[in-house]
Amino acid sequence: MSDAATPDQPTVGSQRGNHPSMTELRAVSQPPTVLGRRNSEHWAGALYLRKGSIYITRALLPTGISANAVTWWIAIIGVGAAAVLLLPGWWPFLAAAALIQFSIMIDCTDGEIARWRGQSSAAGVYIDRVCHYVVEASLPIGFGMHLDGGPAHAGGWTILGMATAILVLLKKATGDLVHVARAYFGWPKLSEDAELAAPRSGGLRSIRGLLRFFPFFRAFGAIEYSLILLVIATIDLLRPLGSEGLLQLWAIIGVPLAALTALGYLIAILASSRLRPPAGS
């Protein structure tokens, strides 16, 4: 989820005070146009994170902290979650999952602050993207180091984690490069129209429809990845031998799965209308 103030929002100063009521703050910072976004609004944000983020937003407004400064905390907390994974045992997986939840809640907060103050910026969007790249790449690396027994013993599992991280970054870059290509030709900002993102081929549309029931392509988002690790670590903990065999299996499977996700995303983009000239151009 990306909740940085978006480029189509005006960059203007705001005369709103720093002590709004919750009703006022929700009306401005969590409008239906934000909560109803098809792609940008993460399922966890819509389901429960927004319920907590608005209170953080209200607490931060009187401090005068900028939305961009808040955005950096997405990476700080997210990298902290990856660092926790370097420690042995089951509890680091619980702590990492909790920290990632908080990180994404902060991702909601920065945009809410920007909307309340009417202070969007291209820098805010850029920082938000950088933070998500850093967090989503850090998690599989931290996981690999956990399986190796820490940074001092980095070896094969760490290499697998780094390979997964590279593929995750490739997938994210593939998506962001759509906006770069459109900007290069002076086309308007990509809308969230479902038809625009849908494959033009009927066969690919059918495959895309089936993937809604098997959304493996979401496995490497920060929230999903941390929760998957927590579930697998818990199952490993409850097994008679208490080994990390299932975690090791996930580390192995993660590489080809991340590669398939990146390749599938590339095919989906090229097969859609996202890179076709907009009507009237």
Concise structural overview:
With 281 residues, the protein is mainly α. It has helices at 22-29, 32-35, 43-60, 67-84, 91-117, 122-148, 156-184, 194-197, 202-211, 222-238, 245-271.
Summary keywords:
281 residues, 11 helices, 0% strand, mainly alpha, 67% helix
Structural overview:
By secondary structure, this protein is mainly alpha-helical. It contains eleven helices and no strands. It starts with 21 loop residues before the first helix and ends in a 10-residue tail after the last helix.
Total number of β-strand segments? 0
Question: Which strand-content bin applies to the residues?
Answer: under 5%
- Could you give the distance between the termini? 30 Å
Largest sheet: none
Q: What is the mean pLDDT?
A: 85
Rg, Cα atoms, Å? 20 Å
Overall geometry? globular
Indicate the low-confidence ranges by residue numbers: 5-13
Secondary structure category? mainly alpha
Helix content: 55-70%
List the total number of helices.
11
What is the string of helix and strand elements?
HHHHHHHHHHH
